[in-house]
Design brief:
Layout: H1 4-23, H2 34-67, H3 75-93, E1 106-107, E2 120-127, E3 132-140, E4 149-157, H4 168-185, E5 194-200, E6 204-208, E7 211-214, H5 231-242, E8 247-253, H6 255-264, E9 270-276, E10 280-287, E11 300-304, H7 322-330, H8 338-343, H9 345-361, H10 372-375, H11 382-389, H12 394-404, H13 411-446, E12 452-459, H14 461-465, H15 467-477, E13 481-487, H16 493-517, H17 524-543, E14 553-554, E15 567-574, E16 579-587, E17 590-598, H18 602-605, H19 609-626, E18 633-640, E19 644-648, E20 651-654, H20 671-681, E21 689-696, H21 698-707, E22 713-719, E23 723-730, H22 731-734, E24 740-744, H23 762-770, H24 778-783, H25 785-801, H26 812-815, H27 822-828, H28 835-844, H29 851-886, E25 892-899, H30 901-905, H31 909-920, E26 924-930, H32 936-950
Parallel strand pairs: 2-5, 5-8, 9-12, 12-13, 15-18, 18-21, 22-25, 25-26
Antiparallel strand pairs: 1-11, 2-3, 3-4, 6-7, 9-10, 10-11, 14-24, 15-16, 16-17, 19-20, 22-23, 23-24
The structure holds 1,5-anhydro-6-O-phosphono-D-glucitol (2 copies) and beta-D-glucopyranose (2 copies).
Length: 951
């Protein structure tokens, strides 16, 4: 049974035995006792023969190692390969270089991993691995902490060899007939509609889940007439041809994706899918902003890397051995899938055969004997390789396999061939580890993490043979990562069904969210209507003194500044987010300002009028101290951002509080007197005195402040806590004496007469109901910072109650009024913010959600803020068109001075406002000029003008 090399073995063992006998006297040292000498002799005589065998063993190892030196990759090389693969991934993801990229990085349109709410009954097809399977998959939804469950029934259908190189239609007819047979056999109704999930393990370019163009075949498939065609369409047509089934193909996924989803059902950290089977491939969840080929920056998408093609562009040439080149040349897709041919089950056996063949031809094995079987492609399979490496039985298996190849292997031939198998399969694991390390490093970098905890879902016959090797090498290459490997226990169809269930869930979620947000999406017609209603409201307000929804309050400001203003003025600014005291010094058309900001506590806003104005007087006193002007006697302008009826520039009767204010005993009172009284009340220790020469609305102050820079500025807009606009109205409208006067429109009141009821949503009604001034300021409650966050919260509450968000958990936080401040809208909607950051904002708010939740929250914020900006744009179009018509102009150039946190800080508000104004008032060229120093300077300017006018 032994061949010439066995002769070798015998001679050598005889040699060693005689050597041990000869050397024995050498060890007869006199000073040792007999007993110890006897022991040494015994050992020598026993060991020698074994060490001889051992020596032979080492020898054949050594021979193989030298022969396959290029296949033994050490960590530096693996890190180098990993770095190369990362570069390939980048190439594949970028729109510029994707077309030429060897690693295709195909978007799969799978945007999320399972979250346990998936449910349904599906039929599934699993084509492309070593077995074609038809399955029925029942997914039970998880309840609370109890995770859902999946029941599956499957049947394997052989694929006749000729179909692997036949026409596409023939192959898919076989697939759909197998499906029908399965439905029949399992008594699954042929009438009832069955959603079908299709695992298709070849590279496809998807534009959506149920459409995928075949890029190329791989492994042992060489079917004709399908490359570049839509595989889902081909399957649907085959099912129609077979007939008698009511099946709807809802999703097609790659086996890596389905494997990731299968493992993701039980492990939320599973964001990578890996197949090491007949073929090899990996997929992972990538940030959508890095996927150039798919629109959108929000969320994630699973990318099917198709890493089998790594090296097709020569990137691995210095690692490819002659044996790899031979395997490639003999394959049915030469030059393609280079990495796959070094790694996957389709090729490992062949690699081993070619190495054994070459060593035999060189007389290093089987005494140079070469059998026809050994020369035959495919005679050594990957299953053989695995058998040869088996622990304990490996050598026997090797002998049996080589014998079957009509060879007469000696023991050391067997050792050598077993070692060849080990080197080839080890290289496979090492290369996969290098590829995986590249993907995991990229995910870690994407998430800005120092360490990464992640799970890899795996399947495939090769992996099942050598799982641990891969784990060890990956952990050695990425010591800082905590990588868990989960073998997909039931193949990929569970995952494919979950993708379909997720697709169904996302589709219905999408639809329900669209339905919920639809009322916020205002059409051009609706915006035109709002413009017309705003215009009608402006006109009505001018006609009817104070009874109309839009008050149109005269400001007694007759002109914008002309640069002649001079002197030092104090400006007080109440009504926005804070109270601001400011010192303005006008000199030679220049203004020097000093200011200090004070908060107004809620209890003061909603306390007594006296407390409020005492607080203001206290702040003024503090400011003058801070300015070192203890005993100042200054003219002052008072910006009071609430509707006031004025009869002169220095008096203003508060019509009604708005925003968060409701201090008592103020409405119907002159705010200038109330301030003067407060200062007087401080008489015992008030060292300063103010000559309040003007009280202005913040819109008027803002207009004046900007007009100081741009004389064309004749409109003031506030888009902040509240919203409002003022503009220079023509004389005939206000008072025959004067040419123009600035009108404080108080447009926040539009709709108080029901004129906006057709666009007000139930969420707006809720916000209005919960506000401190229900029924009033309806337009403001749709557009300003005080309310947008609350509208968003109401929508999120409704979506959560509907189970569409936060897994239906309505937390106390979500029920808390005012918790969702408008500043969060600005943060969440900023383009720079990745979804993860949105998630962290929500987490800070105690709203634990998924990536999908973050996408929806961002969408709700966007819908609410966009509507607000559009409504303000419609209002502004009404104002500028009125001014244009007032002046009988075909075209108007005008500037709007703007202030307010919403306008200044929200990432999109200002642009949407401008665009909407342009569209709705095409005959006006409107420039929006953000006010630098707030309305205080404007108030000081008005004080200066008032002083000039009244000397
Ligand atoms: C089992 C999966 C199938 C995948 C196969 C890969 O259900 O989708 O294609 O693993 O392993 P292979 O059968 O090629 O060894
Ligand atoms: C800054 C102005 C002030 C105005 C405020 C509005 O100086 O008069 O009330 O802008 O913006 P908000 O602070 O409400 O965002
Ligand atoms: C295919 C991949 C597939 C892999 C594992 C490769 O040949 O190109 O799409 O995922 O085999 O089955
Ligand atoms: C007030 C206006 C003010 C606007 C912006 C509204 O609530 O009624 O007077 O201009 O807020 O601050």
């Amino acid at each position: 049974m032994y061949n010439s090399s066995s002769v070798h073995t015998t001679c050598l063992s005889l040699f060693s035995l005689s050597a041990s006998l000869c050397l024995h006297p050498l060890f007869k040292v006199h000073q040792w006792g007999d007993k110890s000498v006897r022991l040494i002799n015994l050992c020598l005589s026993v060991c020698f023969p074994f060490s001889a065998f051992f020596f032979l063993f080492i020898l054949s190892f050594f021979q193989v190692d030298r022969f396959l030196y290029a296949m033994r990759l050490h960590d530096d090389q693996l890190k180098d390969i990993s770095a190369r693969f990362q570069a390939e991934m980048k190439k594949g993801l970028s729109a510029e270089s994707n077309a030429a990229a060897a690693v295709k990085m195909l978007p799969t349109h799978v945007r999320s991993t399972p979250d346990g709410t998936e449910k349904g009954q599906f039929v599934a097809l699993d084509l492309g691995g070593s077995k074609f399977k038809v399955l029925q998959v029942k997914v039970r939804e998880g309840m609370g902490i109890r995770r859902g469950g999946v029941e599956m029934e499957e049947k394997i259908y052989p694929i006749p060899k000729e179909l692997l190189s036949g026409r596409g239609t023939e192959l898919f007819d076989h697939v759909s007939e197998s499906l029908k047979d399965f439905l029949h056999e399992k008594n699954i109704s042929l009438e009832k509609k069955h959603p079908l999930a299709f695992t298709f393990s070849f590279p496809c370019e998807h534009s959506k889940l149920d459409q995928g163009l075949l890029v190329n075949w791989s492994k042992n498939y060489r079917v004709r007439g399908l490359q570049g065609k839509d595989v889902v369409k081909t399957l649907r047509e085959a099912i129609d041809r077979t007939g008698g089934m009511n099946v709807e193909v809802l999703a097609m996924v790659n086996d890596t994706v389905a494997t990731m989803m299968t493992c993701g059902f039980d492990d939320q950290y599973c964001d990578v899918g890996l197949i090491i089977g007949t073929g090899t491939n990996a997929c992972y969840m990538e940030g959508l902003r890095n996927v150039d080929l798919v629109e959108g920056d929000e969320g994630r998408m699973c990318i099917n890397t198709e890493w089998g093609g790594f090296g097709d562009d020569g990137a691995l040439n210095d690692y490819i051995t002659e044996f790899d080149r031979e395997v490639d040349a003999a394959s049915n897709n030469p030059g393609k899938q280079i990495f796959e041919k070094m790694v996957s089950g389709m090729y490992l056996g062949e690699l081993v055969r070619l190495v054994v063949l070459k060593m035999a031809k060189r007389g290093k094995l089987f005494d140079g004997q070469v059998s026809d079987a050994l020369r035959t492609t495919g005679k050594i399979t990957t299953a053989h390789v695995a058998a040869m490496e088996q622990y304990k039985t490996g050598l026997n298996n090797t002998r049996d396999i080589l014998t079957e190849l009509d060879l007469n292997p000696s023991p050391d031939d067997c050792v050598a061939v077993q070692h060849i198998s080990t080197i080839v399969s080890f290289r496979s694991s090492n290369l996969v580890a290098a590829g995986l390390a590249a993907i995991l490093s990229r995910i870690k970098r994407n998430r800005n993490l120092r360490t990464l905890r992640i799970t890899v879902g795996v399947d495939g016959t090769v992996y099942k043979t050598y799982p641990k090797r891969l784990h060890k090498v990956v952990r050695r290459l990425l010591p800082e990562c905590h990588v868990r490997f989960v073998l997909s226990d039931s193949g990929s169809s569970k995952g494919a069904a979950l993708v379909t269930a997720v697709a169904q869930r996302l589709a219905s979620l999408r639809q329900q969210v669209d339905e919920t947000l639809c009322p916020f999406k205002l059409s051009q017609e609706q915006l035109q209507l709002v413009k017309a209603r705003m215009r009608a409201g402006l006109e009505a307000g001018l006609k009817t003194k104070g009874s109309s929804a839009i008050k149109m309050l005269p400001s007694y400001v007759y002109r914008t500044p002309d640069g002649t203003e001079h002197g030092k003025y104090l400006a007080l600014d109440l009504g926005g987010t804070n109270f601001r005291a400011m010192m303005v010094n006008f000199k030679r058309q220049n203004a020097r300002l000093y200011h200090k900001i004070y908060t107004i506590p809620l209890e003061i806003m909603q306390g007594t009028g006296e407390e409020l104005f005492d607080h203001i007087a206290q702040c003024v006193s503090d400011f003058l101290d801070y300015m070192g002007m203890k005993n100042a006697h200054l003219p002052a302008g008072f910006t009071f951002s609430f509707p006031c009826e004025q009869t002169a520039i220095d008096t203003g009767t508060l019509v009604s509080w708005t925003k968060g204010y409701k201090a008592t005993d103020c409405e119907g009172h002159d705010v200038v007197s109330m301030l003067r009284e407060a200062i007087k009340r401080r008489n015992n220790n008030a060292t300063f005195d103010l000559d309040i020469v003007a009280v202005v609305n913040d819109t008027v102050g803002t207009m004046m402040s900007c007009a100081y820079e741009d004389p064309q500025c004749e409109i003031g807009l506030i888009a902040g806590t509240g919203t409002n606009v003022c503009y220079m109205e023509e004389k005939k409208e206000v008072d025959a004496e004067l040419s123009k006067m600035c009108i404080n429109t108080e447009w926040g009141g539009l709709g108080d007469d029901g004129s906006l009821d057709d666009i007000i949503t139930p969420y707006d009604m809720e916000v209005n109901q919960n506000s401190i001034n229900p029924g009033r300021q309806r337009f403001e409650k749709l557009t300003s910072g005080m309310y947008l966050g609350e509208i968003v919260r109401q929508v999120l509450l409704d979506l959560t109650r509907g189970g569409l968000l936060f897994r239906g958990h309505v937390t106390e936080t979500l029920k808390t009024p005012g918790i969702f401040e408008t500043k969060y809208l600005s943060q969440i909607e900023s383009d720079r913010l990745a979804l993860l950051q949105v998630r962290s904002i929500l987490q800070q708010l105690g709203l634990k959600g998924t990536c999908d939740d973050s996408i929806i929250v961002k969408e709700v914020c966007g819908a609410v803020s966009r509507r607000a900006a559009q409504l303000c744009g419609a209002g502004m179009a009404a104002v500028v068109d009125k001014i244009r018509e007032n002046r009988g102009l075909d075209h108007l150039n005008i500037t709007v001075g703007v202030d307010g946190a919403l306008y200044k800080l929200h990432p999109h508000f200002s642009r949407v406002l401008k665009d909407t104004t342009e569209v709705l008032a095409p005959q006006c060229n409107v420039t929006f000029l953000p006010s630098e120093e707030g309305s205080g300077k404007g108030a000081a300017l008005i004080s200066a003008v008032a002083r000039q006018m009244h000397g």
